Amino acid sequence: MLRCCRGVAAKAPQARIEGVLIEQSAPRGQEVIIGMKRDPGFGPLLMFGLGGIYVELFKDVSFRVAPIGEREALEMIQATRAGRLLTGFRGQAPADVAAVVDCLCRLSQLALDFPQISEIEVNPLQVFEAGRGVLALDARVLF
Question: How far apart are CA 2 and CA 21, in angstroms?
Answer without folding.
Answer: 11
